[in-house]
Input
Amino acid sequence: QVQLVESGGGLVQAGGSLRLSCAASGSIFSINAMGWYRQAPGQQSELVATVTSGDSTNYADSVKGRFTISRDNAKNTVYLEMNSLKPDDTAVYYCNARIRISRASTFAGSYWGQGTQVTVSS
Output
């Protein structure tokens, strides 16, 4: 079994900062890509940022220059540093990880955290 546990959400004023963390635990052989997605009320889920096992990153245009994704492989943890937050960033943020649970298979399943609320007030 694999679990992803997120932390760091909350309420912040526009222009403020928050740092989200997501730690993976359980039967983990290796972790491929990790990422953050978000879903605002009445909206579809959207990709925020991803980071590969080789530390290549990808960002949504709406967060480029404001958000930074990083990972600590020793801790099986991915972070999202969010600066210059805007009310439009208000959403539930979910972390995702592609995880191999066995040396015997190259298949990496997709696992999700429970979500953490980020609310940015104007």
